[in-house]
Amino acid sequence: MKPRTSLPLAAVFGIPAGIGLVTVAGLVTALLDDGLVDAVSWVALSVPVLVAARSWWKRQR
Amino acid sequence: MTNRTIRIWTLVHKWTSLICTLFMLLLCLTGLPLIFHDEIEALTAEDDLPVPPAETPLKTLDEAVASALATYPGERPLFLSFDEDRPVVNVTTGPNARPPVSQMHISAIDLRTTRILGDLNEDGGFMHVMLRLHVDMFAGLPGELFLGFMGFLLFVATVSGVVLYAPFMRKLSFGTVRAGRSTRLKWLDLHNMLGIVTLMWVVVVGLTGVINTLSVPLVAYWRANELAAMIAPYEGKPVPERFASVDAAVRTAMEAAPGMRPQFIAFPGVRFSSNHHYAVWLKGATPATNRILTPALIDAETGAFTDMRSMPWYMLALRLSQPLHFGDYGGLPMKVLWAALDVLTIVILGSGLYLWVARRRVAKDPATAAPGLRTVAGEPAE
Hints:
Chain A contains two helices and no strands. By secondary structure, chain A is mainly alpha-helical.
């Protein structure tokens, strides 16, 4: 791969920071209440798993 | 980042990872069935609650304790805990106030009949082996603390991994997996992608695991400081010969803390109480507060209320570390996600190990060896 211009740190860590925030929100919300809030946490914790699956699906062959 | 800082972080990442990886693989593999221990144990459960005659009045807690002691003569009560959603209490008995777990007996008792539904004693079965391997590798407190230290190394490895993620990803878009070039490059990209995606889950589960390994020293510290201050007038008093009524103690505690319900009762002399008191551990009534326990101390000789204080921050941290580590607080879907993230962590650990082996092979071949990140990243660092 020909080196392109380097990405700034914010671009490298932008998406990871978003995933991290969603993960933590998912971990905390289920502690606070039962019922609907649990579903919020399931959606949030699905994010890292789905992102990982998508990256593998879209791998460069 | 200069090449020198990158090289230092690489060394930190390499060594902390190498030391903890095999233990982390053990923890991830044994943790997988433990996530579903409720479901697995329900498959083999023997204590099905018989259908009750309608409106059967409940017997007293004292009668339940007597029933447990009749089953294990010569023992004394240690703990009594309440089932969440059925009229069942679990009474733990043992030969003395602080026996090893292996000498304790736990009886699940139907409060309508005080009949023993079954015992929850350690049986050496598959789940028990998984639990012991996961908690202390059958090595007691030293094993527990050792695994805690390995968890700390995992945390350092994770932080250094995040630092190194930056130079690796400077010229790649997020989530890139180059699977078509070399096996090593494919696993490197996967290692980086999975590492950064699961980051916060690994950090939370890792650190709460570390806190859980500190349970014994933290409770001992609480007993020596917080509890000692609560029972100062009773200092040096021996464990009473006879205990006052458990039911009365629970009533007294609940009157002192309206709106709270008992989670468990620690009998005099055990780790979670003083020598002279029932400690009635009360929990809040709402989902947000029912994880926060407040111990009310009741004089076990007279039944009089002594003191009640909310838990200090380190006990609260210990308490909250349990659900956050176990993943058992959001129903079955959460457990499935926990398992998925656990499997992804196994892939990160395995690929890390593979990359280390593959890199050593490269380094041995002078034709391809190069300093710094070049050989790892497959492309030059800054």
